Structures are given as structure tokens and as C-alpha cells.
Amino acid sequence: MMMMMMMMKVVNLLPLVLVLVVVVVAAAAADAATAPEAPADMTFFGEGACRAELDGYHDWAAAKDIYTVQACDLLCRTNDPNKGLRGFVLDAEFDHCICYFEDGLSPGEGGTCPPAYTRDLTPGNCKVTNNGKGPVDSYESHSEAYCYAYNAFPGSESNGDPHFRTWKNEHFEFHGQCDVVMTSVKNFVASANSNHETITLDLDIHLRTKMVRYWSYIEKAAIRIGNDILEVEGMPDFSLSYWINFEHKGELTNLAGFPVSINENNDKYTIHLDAIFPGQRIEIKTYKEFVGVKIIGATQASFGNAVGITGDYKTGHTYARDQSTILHDFNQLGQEWQVLPSDGRLFHAMAAPQFPEHCYLPEDPQGQRQRRLDESSITEDQAEVACSGLSDDFDRKGCVYDIVATQDLGMVGAY
């Protein structure tokens, strides 16, 4: 297949006729031995390019002599941390690392690409996803596991016994009890008021966690866009429970103009952002008392200003509120992003603790967890079998932990 048809400043790409192995991994997981610093001639590695083939387009840049996915990941992230990186592929035959960027944001010339079209390729091949953005070159892939899942990177997520996924695709747990800021986005979208004046609307997502013994879980989530607030609560009997602008089970059709839908099982609420941000959405999923929130298909244009417990969108770092101090202690990170009065009130009712009282933290969570494991009737092996159908490593690990903690094999339904 014809992958690229232009000369790069640093490297010439040959036609590619192989399966592109596509892997999204956290930069922090890169092994220093397999992810060396890029040579000086690769620190700025080429121009962006628009492609007309296959009714798709993307901006890309490339470097040669990269031999591992970890090294490719590190190279793409470190060379252009603020250029709208969407992911990467490693061509194992030619040792080319190819970095994908948002429209017009790649290194070098960049430029604006023409409109794209959504279409599937022939059966057995990778799909053009999200309005044509993303790699579309893997003709010979026979499993979507080898295709680049555009909607999964970057993303921000929280679920279960609070497992968090940062914008950098790093995973951590925070087992405290309090209201926390999952993410806050200033100037999320422009809108017109009743006087036809242009105003900007902010977006905020707050989570309320509840502690049980050595672990906690997200029992409520509240999302505010502009002045509209949707609050969702998990229920042990699987019943529907939400508030729209503090009205319990009020008419729910949209949030600040963005359509909202509830699936037929009444366990997933979707805020569709397509009208302004094609292919993007926010999902709130419930399972019994558990609530999870997932941001899908985020871009620089929509979530570029995002900060919160799931990190800074532009860098992926888990910053403190000063946006300069990086926090690696996740209990400290949770305390830092406890909801303050200045963050506003999103939940219809208050619950302890509220600032200035700090988040409650479990005592000796690791020791209590081990004792719980020793006493469990459902073993880790059984949990792993129950969760084996989940394709995402992050979800699978969280699922196993949650089943053992709750002694409920049905927890796989939370994922």
C-alpha cells in the first residue's frame, strides 16, 4: 500500500506493505533501556502531511531507526508534547516510528487538511475512525486489535474502586472519600446568549467517592457545562437515579444544548458532543452503587485546557493546582483536587467531608486488602476468569481488583 508520498526533512519513508503494529502505552512505562533519547537529528523530525487516499487524512511525522514501541511512544511524546499528539505506529520491517497529530498541529509545515469522510475498509482490514482521522494504512490486519483505536487515546477515565486513567494513559487508584475534581475545562465551548452575544461555557466533572473498609468507590458523578448540571447516582437495585439542574429525574434531553441519551438498560448516560466536536462524547456508566465516567475522543480543541485529578491534557502530567508541581503520591493528588468552594457546587446535596476538612483516607489499605484477599470466597483466579473478556488491560486489572474487593462477580458489568 502507499503509506506516504512526500519527502520528509529527516527521513524518507518507503512504501509500506505490512501490518502496522499499533500500540498505545504510557510514557511512564517505557523502559529506559528500550526507549533511548532521540538522536539530535530526530528532535525535530519532519513535516505534517494531509492524505487524500482512502477518503481519510491525518498529519504525521516520522523518524527512522526506532526498534521498540516503547521507544516510539517516548519519541512521539517527548519531541512534541504540546502538538496535539494522537498516537503512533511502529513499522517493524523498516524500523520507522510514525507519530500522528491533530489536523494542522504536526511539526513543520502542518497546515489545514480538507474535510474527511467516515468509511470502513473491506472486511478484515483496519477501519477509518472518527471522521477519517487516524491511521488508515493497515490493509493486511485481520484483527482490530492491531488497528489504532483512535477513540481510546487520549482519554480520561474513572470507574469502579476508584481507578483513574490520565490523559497520558497512566493508571492509578485513590481510595479516599470526598468530592474530587476529575477534570475542569475553562472556555470549553463558545455559545450565544439571548442577546446574541458570544459567551464561553466551562466544563467541570466532579466525582463523589465513598469509603468502605480499605477501599472506596465512586457513588456519584456530576457534569456541568455552562449552567446546566447532570448528576448521576448508582443504585443497588439498578434503578435509574439522576438529577438535572438539581431536579430528580427531571426532563433530560440535553446538557447545555448537547444531546443526552440513556441506553435501554438504564445504566449508561451519553453526552454527545458531536455537534461541536465530531466523534467526541462523555459516558457515565453505572453498576449497582458504582459509577464510572469516560471521556472519549478528546482533542486539543475541546479538552486542551483540561486540568484535574486525571492530569493536564497538554502534558499528561498529574499537576497540583499550581500547574507546575507534579504529584506522584496519589493520596496527595486526591487531597489536592478535593473540591473547593471556588470550584462550585455540582451535587444536589452535601456530604462529608467538605473542605476545609480533608478527604478521609483508609488506614493501612495494603494490609487490609491482603487480609481481605486471605478471607475471600471469590479468588483472584476466579476474578481473572470473569474479567478475561475485557480487551483493555486497565479495565481487566481494575475488574479483578473490584471483584475481589466486593466479592461480586457481576462487577465485570461495570466495565
UniProtKB/TrEMBL annotation:
<keyword id="KW-0732">Signal</keyword>
<feature type="signal peptide">
    <location>
        <begin position="1"/>
        <end position="32"/>
    </location>
</feature>
<protein>
    <recommendedName>
        <fullName>VWFD domain-containing protein</fullName>
    </recommendedName>
</protein>
